[in-house]
Write a structure and sequence with these properties.
Elements: H1 2-25, E1 27-34, H2 45-59, E2 67-74, H3 79-91, E3 97-100, H4 104-117, E4 120-123, E5 140-142, H5 147-160, E6 165-171, H6 174-189, E7 193-200, H7 208-217, E8 221-225, H8 229-240, E9 249-252, H9 257-263, H10 265-268, E10 272-275, H11 283-295, H12 303-322, H13 328-337, E11 340-342, E12 346-350, E13 356-357, E14 360-365, E15 378-384, H14 386-389, H15 399-402
Parallel strand pairs: 1-2, 1-3, 3-4, 4-5, 6-7, 6-8, 8-9
Antiparallel strand pairs: 10-14, 11-12, 12-13, 14-15
Keywords: Amino-acid transport, Signal, Transport
Family: Belongs to the leucine-binding protein family.
GO biological process, one term: amino acid transport
């Protein structure tokens, strides 16, 4: 009797490591870290949290017994605050992956942290192409858009239609600098000229002095190398100064659906913009957007929020295939080895440098007469194939490419 009890106890002890491993493999936490109260809150914010939760629902893992928690936090566009939140999430709360990561300076800071902690960073909101260039990382994937793609889509199209002299109004941080740099290179390569540029403080309410400088430059195109509320305010105030009526045109180099919604079609009509996603593009985008709208009181998703959904879906596929979410580097390698396919951006792949590639689309903002109702804002001008939409991998300087 005693022998049987000892054998039973030994068998139970032998099963403990397996049970702990199974429990670990069945549990993961997703942290959505972005701007939830400032100039980028509309294009990401709590909508990105909703998108991540929809991805978890659609993954099928909950039905298979996985316990998945989605957290959200506001980094206030400050790298130090973002790093502190992410470090606490990684070290104390057991978060496996951070997604959205609006703001390029924040994304670059967290890329190093995720690599050091062997976690995963899925960037949807930040746009600097440095994330897959010289500052690429084994633990970061850049999902939705980047400054190179935006410059080579919107910028090239504008130069080709006669907009060959430019003046840049540039948000004074990593994203704005990268977008200006990449667009200027495209303008010059296409035979255009840059007549001047000015740096603008992030989240400034008054663009009047900067717009006056742009107006006096005589440039045909005023390039807005900014985003979010900064873009909306720039365009609204440009209308007040009569810049377009005076013969100049605005180039919104990163414009979101929520910006057009805020500006209104009477002012935004005719604006060219590039996006990876539009809610009314096809059956898949409409199906996702209808579900998103129910969660977000009628609002339609931006490409950042759609990118959060797509990146989390692909992440969860990789985690399920591996059976474990704790080795971030291994998860990223699995994501790179597996073709992407989701209802928001279709088929694609994640390259060795961490750049996720897919088709990009050039849109024109409709006039009020063309729009059939609220959120019906875009008409498709051109689809840029995935192979052409993003910077060639051998031109970015990513060490993961040059050393392989």
């Amino acid at each position: 009797m005693k022998t049987r009890r000892l054998l039973a106890a030994a068998a139970a002890l032998a099963l403990l490591p397996m049970s702990a491993e199974a429990q670990t493999a069945k549990t993961l936490k997703i942290g959505v870290l972005n701007d939830q109260s400032g100039l980028y809150a509309d294009m990401g914010g709590v909508g990105s949290v909703a998108a991540a939760r929809l991805a978890v629902q659609d993954s099928g893992l909950l039905e298979k017994g996985w316990k998945i928690e989605v957290l959200g936090a506001d980094h206030q566009n400050k790298p130090d605050i973002a790093s502190n939140i992410a470090r606490r999430w990684f070290d104390v709360e057991g978060v496996d992956v951070v997604t959205d990561v609006t703001n390029s300076a924040v994304a670059l800071a967290l890329s190093s942290l995720a690599r050091d902690k062997n976690k995963v960073e899925l960037v949807s909101g930040a746009a600097t192409s440095e994330l897959t260039g010289k500052q690429c990382s084994t633990n970061t994937i850049h999902w939705t858009h980047d400054t190179w793609a935006l410059a080579n889509g919107t910028g090239k199209a504008i130069v080709q239609t006669g907009g060959d002299t430019w003046y840049f109004m540039t948000a004074d941080y990593a994203f704005g600098h990268a977008l200006e740099r990449d667009t200027e290179a495209v303008v010059k390569a296409s035979g255009g000229k840059v007549l001047g540029k000015v740096l603008t403080p992030l989240n400034t309410p008054d663009f009047s002095s900067f717009l006056l400088q742009a107006q006096s430059s005589g440039a045909k195109i005023v390039g807005l190398a900014n985003s979010g509320v900064d873009t909306s305010n720039s365009i609204k105030q440009a209308a007040e100064f009569g810049i377009v009526e005076g013969g100049q045109k605005l180039a919104g180099l990163l414009v979101y659906l929520t910006d057009v919604h805020s500006i209104g079609l009477p002012i935004a009509q005719g604006l060219l913009l590039e996006a990876a996603f539009y809610w009314d593009l096809n059956e898949g985008t409409r199906a996702f957007s209808d579900r998103f709208s129910k969660e977000m009181r009628g609002r339609r998703p931006t490409m950042v929020q759609a990118g959060v959904y797509g990146s989390v879906i692909h992440y969860l596929k990789a985690v399920e295939a591996l059976g474990d979410s704790k080795d971030g580097r291994a998860v990223v390698e699995k994501m790179k080895a597996t073709p992407t396919d989701d209802i928001v951006m279709g088929k694609g792949q994640v390259r060795a440098d961490g750049r996720k590639i897919h088709d990009m689309h050039l849109f024109e903002v409709k006039s009020p007469d063309e729009s059939k109702g609220e959120w019906d804002y875009y008409k498709l001008r051109q689809t840029i194939p995935a192979a052409e939409a993003f910077r060639p991998m051998d031109q970015g300087g990513c060490p993961l490419v040059t050393t392989n």
